[in-house]
């Protein structure tokens, strides 16, 4: 038996004891009739937190983003401009096209999750009848594929001005908005001030079992409520879920800085190994994710490294790479591509697990670096 440290995602966390207590004890009603007091309270709480008029509780981040796209792009022939590394483009099955008939046009993301605003402006369509209608710009904060990067506030503000100038709504996929707010030490309403709609997930770094919110104006949320029903996201006694989400905001969000600190420690240790095959950009490690780059000229692939992290060798348990109970350690992470591994810290990784993971990663990276030298 091996001891597993699961660093694949902050979605693997289970509800806390106080979430379970709230789930069992909260008042319930039929939310499709807007009669679930716990859902209603959560929606008001999130709308307040983000400084918007209204919010809608939905099952997932994917549905929140899709509803936002469908409401903003409600004319046939619409296009939404999104980053080429955005979750909406890469990981939501092209739902905008699939379900809503909306063209997703991509703009190149920079490594910090932003994109060039001049290029964006040049991409906004005019009145030429050959072209689709630019109806939405969407950004992501924190940016998952860029390693949990926090978008610079000034850039968001400038983008928002640009969108206003062209009367195009701005949506933020804020699945991990509260990580951004923790990093910037700014309230979330400040960060999303210039956005017309925002999605926020309770089941990522916040540890709730299920649920996201979509936030915007009264009118936007009224339309979103209709679309949610059409997509099958109208839930009945959804207060059992919303109760956990409220606890996530009250009790888990204030501790996010701990995940960030642990991620920084992980990044610094890997960087400090000074290995040729593996590197981490410590300065751009902002929140709870660490991106490990495998050198381009290394023969190693992400899959190979992940497979090795998931194995325990005899030498590890005969040596010091083990728990105090003499168990070998397995670290789970995910590969973003052939040469990039993402490690994610979350509430269930306390200091003991952090150090076990660091011990194992150090052992495996040194072993692989020595066994697979960089090609000259
Ligand atoms: C940035 C971002 N947006 C949206 C989603 C989708 O959320 P869900 O898995 O709840 O559909 C994710 C999921 O990891 C994400 O990282």
TrEMBL record:
Which residue positions does N6-(pyridoxal phosphate)lysine occur at? Answer: 204
InterPro entries registered for this protein in UniProt: ArAA_b-elim_lyase/Thr_aldolase (IPR001597), Low_specificity_L-TA-like (IPR023603), PyrdxlP-dep_Trfase (IPR015424), PyrdxlP-dep_Trfase_major (IPR015421), PyrdxlP-dep_Trfase_small (IPR015422)
UniProt cofactor(s): pyridoxal 5'-phosphate
GO biological process terms, semicolon-separated: glycine biosynthetic process; L-threonine catabolic process
Q: Name one GO cellular component term.
A: cytosol
UniProt keyword annotation of Lyase present? yes
Superkingdom of the source species: Eukaryota
- Which residues belong to any copy of the Aromatic amino acid beta-eliminating lyase/threonine aldolase domain? 6-294
**Pfam families reported in the protein's UniProt record:** Beta_elim_lyase
Q: What GO molecular function annotations does the UniProt record carry, in alphabetical order?
A: L-allo-threonine aldolase activity
What keywords were assigned to this record? Lyase, Pyridoxal phosphate
Per the record's keyword annotation, is Phosphoprotein included, yes or no?
Answer: no
Q: Hey, which family's this protein in?
A: Belongs to the threonine aldolase family.
Protein name according to UniProt: Aromatic amino acid beta-eliminating lyase/threonine aldolase domain-containing protein
Q: Which source organism does the UniProt entry give?
A: Euphydryas editha (Edith's checkerspot)
